[in-house]
């Protein structure tokens, strides 16, 4: 059974034939003085005209530096005005914006810098030492440009720079690397067409209009921050508030002061916000009355966290699902809470989704299989990795996400886990997500992740890694009994490990496989 696009969502914007450049130029012509971006910490703003002019400056600088059209330009810096200007400006100039994650680690950074083949690397003061070390370790002689993150990109010294050729929709626009938790990171190539299709999917799913304003607290080195809260406002002719990073203490102040009508976060951020004592209690106080919805993605949202957030703040919460290779969003719940499925990231919007399982009729429902997606938002390829690109697609052209799930008769998908994260105990497949959801229901749990650990009798046993709310002591025996009562003894964790934090990727997603490797088998103790 395939979930068809568009059911229960807004109209899908027509972005066919458009590019980042044509969108910026068109927006600057239509409403030159409208605000596109606000930077709350530096108090800078960028209008559509100023953003288009920034794109022209980037184009001129790259031409003056001899960077040819289609070449990659690297960005290793925190969120800010300069990062935004470079992110959009390189694509505006017909070059390939290439984003690097500062949290990836030195060896990984050195690898992706060498693998990407970028011709320039831009960094800020906070990441300059890291950038220099990574370039040196990569063995390349890459020019490194250090620029203040809040000042924007200055005009080139030379005034003789040739104008860049406007890009075509099918030209490469963005190179972004996957987290590489199971091996070397892969470079995902998106064209202008696939990026804008991803942005259009977000606009349709959330019914974004020109008066909307997003709060982007996710990094611009990750596909969620890039497409959902930058490209989607570009497509919808709206605006975005872009602080340097997520801050629990400043989150609601930014929402209220800057008039944000929606926000995009990850589940761990919702847990942190729920832990605040002095946050606005509900939208009924009018402080949050202008907020239409919050959006959660990048990792499964525990139903207990979902319900607690809505009850606490009175803001509708929309769970979604996206992947880097599909320009972020592939599934979304509708905005109307009455037709949402809590525990599901929703149904297809702007692309098609199906549950793939060889030999099973396509119209079957409620069976488990790999989640596959097809649409104009799918990546062009993995950079310099034809075997991985072939492996990522089915024979009939559907992208294989690696996530397992099932689909109900209404097209809502329920994610049951990842193939590489399944716990296989005594020959039975157990979804870690099912156990996570139960752990989150126990009072005092801030973060939780179930993993498999080696066991001589069953092959694998279940271990639970949990983080308690600050100042709260979780009773392990009570937690164990709660799991047994809810899950039964076979699916309940045998081992519990209390940690200060769980390892996460750049988007805030808990990295279960990295967690398994970080905690040695000797750490587990029998009850």
Describe the structure.
The protein has a nine-stranded mixed β-sheet with strand order 3-2-11-10-12-13-14-15-16, sandwiched between helices. The protein has a seven-stranded mixed β-sheet with strand order 7-6-4-5-8-9-19, with helices on both faces. Helix 4 (106-116) packs across helix 5 (128-138) and helix 6 (192-206) packs across helix 7. It contains 14 helices and 26 strands. Residues 520-527 have low confidence and may be disordered. The chain is α/β, with parallel strands linked by helices and 527 residues long.
Strand and helix layout:
Blueprint: E1 2-3, H1 20-30, E2 35-39, E3 44-47, H2 48-64, E4 72-76, H3 81-92, E5 96-99, H4 106-116, E6 120-123, H5 128-138, E7 144-146, E8 172-177, E9 187-191, H6 192-206, E10 213-216, H7 223-236, E11 239-241, H8 251-257, E12 262-265, H9 267-274, E13 293-296, H10 303-313, E14 317-323, E15 328-332, E16 347-348, E17 352-356, E18 369-374, E19 381-382, H11 386-391, E20 399-407, E21 413-418, E22 423-425, E23 428-430, H12 432-440, E24 445-455, E25 459-468, H13 476-487, E26 495-498, H14 512-518
Parallel strand pairs: 2-11, 4-5, 4-6, 5-8, 6-7, 10-11, 10-12, 12-13, 13-14, 25-26
Antiparallel strand pairs: 1-17, 2-3, 8-9, 9-19, 14-15, 15-16, 17-18, 18-20, 20-21, 22-23, 24-25
Helix pairs in contact: 1-2, 1-3, 2-3, 4-5, 6-7, 9-10
